[in-house]
Amino acid sequence: MTETLSGRNIEIAWPDLGITVTAELDDRNAALADALWEALPYQSLQGHTLVAGSHLYHVAPIHSLLHLPASHRIPDRRDAPDGTVFCSALQHLGIKYGPLTEPMPASPVGRVRPEDMPALVEAGHAVWDAVYSTKKQILVEVRRAGVAGGHRIPLLTATDPDADRLLKDVHAETERIWLSEPPELADLHRGWIPSGAGTYETVLPTLLFVNGETRPLGYAAYGGLVRAVTGGMPLDSLRQMARLLTGVPAEFLGYCGLEKLWGFTQRFLSCLDRLDREDFLAVASQLALYINCLGGWNLHLFPWDAADQLRRLSTAGAGQGS
Q1: Does the pLDDT at position 314 exceed 90?
Q2: 232 lies in a domain?
Q3: Which residue of 74, 177, 249, 317 pairs with 182 in a disulfide if CB–CB is 3.0 to 4.6 A?
């Protein structure tokens, strides 16, 4: 599919770094580009891939990214030009700024203009340093070019009273932690774990397990439920899958310190049998955004440089044991 530019320019700014780049949206994935455009402006914690290479991404407060279909997919994002902007069903806005290693299909929505590429690379390196070692919290603002910035998180509603109260509470908590580290995660990463999780007073294994449960709970479980309901899965099946996918990991995360997440999950499961399709979609979508926000903070706070001495072997050296 030929890339056709839309004339809609967005600015992606990192105020703490003094860097702003401009990207133009195109029509390769019009539904995704429209959803992004209509959600602007917003702010988020800027993240960086940890295993895939030179790629920036952040959680975007756009519920529909979880289920909107992509009309055009790049079979392997490694082949995309540097500066390509992507939207993903993981609720991410991503930007490729250099070589990638992960062969993954991706949905492009635009591209950073060539003259801004040096600034984009500079931002990428600064964010990597922050995520990997310094833990400086770098925020990103995405806005329409030439328009004032700002921030908002959409609130969904439900007809069931208990579900609607849950939506409001999840939304309020998401707003509270969106741009500031969640206190329970901050405590956990400082070693304050009231439940005593962590055998022989260790902390790193608990951090690893929390990260390993939070990401799939948001990306796969709740994101999957949203895609299932919009894809027409029968309501009884949706309820069964919600019980199978969400309860056990949320209970474990509650034991590790994410008690609000466990409480929200219990409330979701308790009203599950009363929810119609629209209410189910609303609650699953709002919880997905909240949990994906927690996941983003987890990835930022995790002490990735704790094993900095471990480095990947070159292809030539692989398999050559002592």
Answers
A1: no
A2: yes
A3: 177
